[in-house]
């Protein structure tokens, strides 16, 4: 499944079904650029089992504020619309994969 960009207006719908990993990021953020290829690799490994969504905090401050995002990158994991975990900062692929697999 392709990684999707999600805006404030569509966020609630985007996280309603299944397991969704949301990357709160910004284009100027160095660590966000570092985690992007890790998320691409994770997406390739997990396929359709998990949806990965990206929320640009500069363009979508409402969602970032609602979920208490203070630092980026912040990864939030949702299962059927309910937040089940948060990771802040760059994490290795193996750690992220284990974290997400625990919700499948």
Q: What descriptors fit this protein?
A:
Thioredoxin-like_sf; Glutaredoxin; 104 residues; 4 helices; five-stranded mixed beta sheet; disulfide bond; globular; single chain; Thioredoxin; alpha/beta
Describe the fold and architecture:
- The chain is an alpha/beta fold.
- It has one domain (4-101): 3-Layer(aba) Sandwich (Glutaredoxin), CATH 3.40.30.10.
- 35% of the residues lie in helices and 28% in strands.
- The protein is built from four helices and five strands, in the order βαβαβαββα.
- The chain has helices spanning 11-14, 30-46, 61-66, 93-101, and strands at 4-5, 19-25, 50-56, 74-79, 82-88.
- A five-stranded mixed β-sheet has the order 1-3-2-4-5.
- The model has no long low-confidence stretch (mean pLDDT 96).
- Residues 1-104 form the Thioredoxin domain.
- This is Thioredoxin.
- Belongs to the thioredoxin family.
Count up the domains. Answer: 1
Largest sheet entry: 5 strands, mixed
In DSSP terms (H or I, runs of 4 or more residues), the helix count works out at: 4
| Strand and helix order | EHEHEHEEH
Chain oligomer state: single chain
Radius of gyration: 12 Å
